[in-house]
Amino acid sequence: MRRKIAGTVGSVLLCALLLAGCSNGASTANSTAGSSQQETSSSTAASEVLSKEEKERKAALEESARKFKSAENYRESGEYFKAYSLYQKVIEDDSNYTEAQKRATEMLDLYWKQQDALVEQGEYQTAIENTASAMSFMGLTSPLDSGIELEKTILQVAEKLAQSGGFSNPKATMKSFPITGSTPIFYINIECDNINGKALSSLSSDTIIKKYDELSDKMNESIFKASMGFNSILLGDIHSNGNWYSVFNEKLTVRTDEEQEELDNPSTSSTSNNGYSTGGPGVGKKPSKSNSSASSGTNKITQEHRNALSRAESYYHDMDLSKAQVRRQLEFEGYEKDAIDYAMKNLT
């Protein structure tokens, strides 16, 4: 009987051990399978990421190759600026990168030689149209943003026109004049020693206005018309021997360098949040006596009030902005409300 019981117990223990072993084996198998699936999933994800990067790199190289080929075509056809621009876009991974950079430098040099030759030959409008074409190709609205001084040709033409009008040793500079809700206007200021050998301080107002108008007409014909496709470029002020000469509505205003500095760098209260300030024809001129004495709702008329009115007159008369647009522009430039109200009340 004891033997039978012992045999039965032994059988039970043996079965228990066998069952435990099977259970552990299944668990190990399941764990191994799960681990294998995770590794496969991770490997697949990594492969997909790598594949995406390879596709992007391949696409970038193909686009770079197309740009290089287009640049070659422009180079052969003599369109040097377009060739320059596309050579610049060839990426470093491209086998043609080094050659592209070399040719970009060559193309830009040829472009400037071409432009300089046109200016020297008096082909002003063609030279300006080339500048407009270059800006359009680069997607620019301002020549000042090109990074390669595209405005140089415009300034060279302005200097040639000024010289032909009797302005001695003219030097042209350009200034951007942003307008809210519109493309900016650009003004070209002319620095000169004298006009036809006579200091501007010795000339009558009528003579200076006449010379200014003559130069303005020339610039409108050669520069403004050719640049209308991308910007308005107009004559700004004349600077000579420490004075600024501004013509507005056939009236001459003369400002000293100190007065001009105050106008270009007004007090914090009259500067826009982005620190922008600007001049332009007519800006900073003192209002007429009738305007100066007009009531503004305050007993004290400050320089800020006068500057706001001068700007408002320039916007309203020179640029044909509506009064609502003028108010918004003055607000954009950061003028105080009472100065804006004064300007709008006295704007006629």
Task: Describe this structure as you would to a colleague.
- With 348 residues, this protein is of the alpha+beta class.
- The chain has a domain at 60-121.
- The chain contains 11 helices and 5 strands; from the N terminus they run αααααββαβββααααα.
- The protein has helices spanning 2-76, 80-87, 97-120, 124-138, 151-164, 205-227, 257-264, 289-292, 303-318, 323-332, 337-346, and strands spanning 171-177, 185-191, 232-240, 243-248, 251-256.
- It has a 5-stranded mixed β-sheet.
- α9 packs across α11 (337-346).
- The longest helix has 75 residues, at 2-76.
- The chain is flat and about 90 Å long.
- 30% of the residues are buried.
Task: Sum up the structure in keywords.
alpha+beta, single chain, 348 residues, 59% helix
Average pLDDT reading: 81
Fraction of helical residues? 55-70%
Ends: how far apart? 130 Å
Structural class: alpha+beta
Which stretches are poorly predicted, pLDDT < 50 over at least 5 residues? 268-298
Helix-strand sequence: HHHHHEEHEEEHHHHH
Strand content: 5-15%
Query: Going across the major beta sheet, what is the strand order?
Result: 1-2-3-4-5
